Fold:
Amino acid sequence: MHRYRPRAARARFALTPVAVVAAALLQQGNAWAQAEPAPTLKPSPMLREDIPPAVRRQLPTFVEGQSIQGRPDLETVIEGGAELRRGDTVIRADRLEYYQPDDLAKARGNVHINKAGNIFEGPLLELKVDAFEGFFNEPRYRFLRNDAYGEADRVDFIDDKRAIIRNASYTTCKREPGPSWMPDWILRATSIRIDQEEEVGQATGAVLSFKGLPILPVPSMSFPLSEKRKSGLLPPTIGIDNVSGVEVTLPYYWNIAPNRDATLYPTLMTKRGVDLAGEFRYLERDYVGSVRANYLPDDRLRGHDRWGLALKHDGLVPLGTLGPAGVAINVNRVSDDNYWRDFSRTSASLTQRLLAGDGIMSWSRGPLSFTTRVLKWQTLQDPTAPIVPPYDRAPQLVARYLRQDLPRGLEFYTEADYTHFESDPTLTAQPNGKRSFALMQLSRPWQSSWGFFVPKLQLHSTHYEFDSPLASGRRTADRTLPTLSLDSGLVFERDAKYFGRSFRQTLEPRAFYVYTPYRDQSYLPNYDSARVDFNFATIYTENAFGGHDRISDNNLLTLGATSRLLDPETGAEAARFGVAQRLRFKDQRVVLPGETPVSERLSDILFGASVALFPKWVADGTVQYNPKNNHSERTTLGVRYNPGNYRVVSAAYRLQRGLSEQVDVGWQWPLNDLWGQADEKLGAGLGLGEGRWYSVGRLNYSLKDRRIVDAVLGLEYDGGCWLGRVVVERLQSSTSSSNKRILFQLEFVGLTKIGSNALQTLKQNIPRYQFLREQITVPSRFSNYD
Structure:
């Protein structure tokens, strides 16, 4: 379809539809609204980001200018402000010739193309409009996705997604006025191949210059036009480590498929050798997982080969008519006991002293579920601070059954667990064994908006078979215990006003009583029991221990209360305050090995609060207070101040009396506040403006030892089109040693990053750290529409 319109008709064409609609509405009035259904918007293919080829071929072509002449359906010549428009393509020039049989446009003089938001300008163009095939001489260009621009001798358009730019330049630096201006960084290449479909650029014969100095000459390099994944060499990373020396990593990324990829991380460490590392990730319909491994032959600092393996897999396995079973595999293994100390910044799962090798298969249908598990530990021992290894479970079988729809509101739950525990008896000082545990539980909850009452009856039964006899000579043991608990609470509400704001305030008292008779369990081994943390989540539970080897004898009442401030409009919680204490009527005689019976009638008091009354401030804390000595046994206090993007300060104080006392402070803050420089309102992911310095860091200080435990300190500079980072990191690796390194990184916005991966360190260590450049939204062609 071919339509002509003179320039004067352009305004009339745009206004006519509005006038027609307005007149129709005035004529119809309310009668139209009553007689006809409500009008709806119809979707238009013209509003799509990508116009399908089938639709594109049917789109009309509009031309306009001061002078139009030609032969219908053959050729058209437009002069004086000439314009051709079809779909997402606009061509403007002083003179434009359009040959309709070939769909060929020839433009001369001040030629301007807008193709889906990408701009090209220059003196001469020949282009097949629909196929977008042709050439552009001496163009200037700007790309929508990353706001990059440059100049070239010629652009050859292969199709609407691909182009080759000859003798090209490329930068994302903002153009400043003046003929002598030069961008801070610029990439010059003999050719740049642009692929908008893959969202990648490929430069050959390239030289990257920074501040006028060539810093990276490369025969060929690829760079992203968006955040889309692509195969190829990634920028090298360089770091300085006090143990390993200078570390240089040259990663290669392989985008195997949309759901699979792999990355190779060969790293040269001047004091150790070459570490060969890689990671493979996959995502399928029924399973997902990753494998990461590294191998360092003949570590010069240790005198032997080093390796690490981390495997994770989660998925479903079909079992025919029984339905699918879930499978979870998590395997972590390393070559030696010193691995966690020497490679503290490797994958977090490989830098702990306890490495799990865990395989789980689970199945459920309705109220019934089964779980099979095999767990093997690798314990990395430190001669100066040895630890007792945990028990392997080879295997563990668990069955559970839950019914919450029984008559008269009853709920029933039962659990059966069989586990074979294995470890080194010379280290654990107790025999390996098999444990069978069963729990039956019956409860009847009453719940309403004003309160709840839940009586519960439990029966625990345990049977042991030991691989070797106990000190008493027994090879088996049995234990059966009942438990009765009563949990109740009320909810009171009132309207209140604090700090000039209206709230709905609640008062929620709670009482929890539990009784378990005493059974001597001191002769039983302890395979998996430990005292649970004393906090608001555990103070209302029946057992003082986790695991099944110890069941505490209890005759106690827990009293507590919570008060909350709720926004009456949204229901959002602005503040919460809580207090709780246990009243013990009888000594607790069941304890862990080495502990003494609990004889205090009144437990420590728990105080807790979480406050978010003001948008910029959040604070929370928990205090375990001992009224006998007027001391807090444990205290955790935290506060965060976050007045806006790229401004956050968080502080935490943690006390565990007699063991540790630490202060933790983290921040990200613009230093330009010191000299009163105003922010540019650019939004998240774009920084606060060019020419700004940011201080970033985190400090963990031990008040007990009077020394810094861990520290990350750094500076970031926003140059507009480039970012610079310097980060100093110190991580404690043992009681007497630490790893230190210096990270340098240059980020050329829209192109690449050179140096160490400082961003990963900052994101892992600084709470609520924000990247200075991060794509929050994908640019639309309508944001750069002609």
Observations:
- Residues 1-35 have pLDDT under 50 and may be disordered.
- Residues 165-230 form one domain.
- DSSP finds five helices and 49 strands in the chain.
